[in-house]
Amino acid sequence: MTKDELKKIVAYEAVDKFVKSGQKIGLGTGSTAIWAIRRVAEHLKSGKLKNILAVTTSLETEIEAERLGIPLRSLNSNDINGHVDVAIDGADEVSSCLSLVKGGGAALFMEKLVAYNADKFVVVVDESKLVPSIGTGFPVPVEVVPVARAVVARRLKSMRADFTIRVGTGKCGPVITDNGNIIFDVLFKTPVDGPDMERLINSIPGVYENGFFSLVRPIVLVAKSDGAIEHL
Ligand code: 5RP
């Protein structure tokens, strides 16, 4: 199966198994999560799912969900009140102890806000995302308030981390997040402890959020290359 087919089947499985009528759901961002959005829309259209309210994690997701007619609410609306029943999202890396790296699409802040306030956080990946440890493979995105970029750079260098400021397509300037910030893509010299590093990086003034997702226990669904789906 192609990678895109694997993304589709694992996202469909997440919706079919974990989303029930009447629920409040979080919709993630990226090329895997988008299939979950499409599946929810398909089930709403057929009547298989009813009375769903969704919170989106990026402008990209909001536009697609809006286009497909999924009823949307903000996390602060009275209906949602800062909590969803289930959030479904992709990941850039999943370690053997289920620490995640996310934010390849620069949506980490809202993704974390939703995931950490969900009863169930369901992560959908193909098996290429499974790694023994995190920090040295996929660069960990750190969202930084632009005025603090030198401060954060100094602190990361003192932690012996290398980083680049993410540039947009066409390389004509930095990527600007939905929150008006920039992204440092950070690599460590040796594997790191996800929970420790998640707390440490967020303690640097000027860091808006980081892409370690280690302080919540996800349910991880993995699409294997033969199309089988494993639950971790
Ligand atoms: C966006 C994310 C995505 O979930 C992550 O980058 C995985 O994306 P994809 O499913 O396209 O590989 O964290 O900020």
TrEMBL record:
InterPro entries: NagB/RpiA_transferase-like, Ribose5P_isomerase_typA_subgr, Ribose5P_isomerase_type_A. It is an enzyme of class 5 (isomerase). One of its GO terms (molecular function) is ribose-5-phosphate isomerase activity. Pfam families: Rib_5-P_isom_A. CDD domains: RPI_A. The active site is at residue 111. It comes from the Bacteria. Substrate binds at residues 29-32, 89-92, 102-105, 129. Keywords: Isomerase. It catalyses: aldehydo-D-ribose 5-phosphate = D-ribulose 5-phosphate. Pathway: Carbohydrate degradation; pentose phosphate pathway; D-ribose 5-phosphate from D-ribulose 5-phosphate (non-oxidative stage): step 1/1. Catalyzes the reversible conversion of ribose-5-phosphate to ribulose 5-phosphate. PANTHER family: RIBOSE-5-PHOSPHATE ISOMERASE. Belongs to the ribose 5-phosphate isomerase family. Homodimer. This is Ribose-5-phosphate isomerase A.
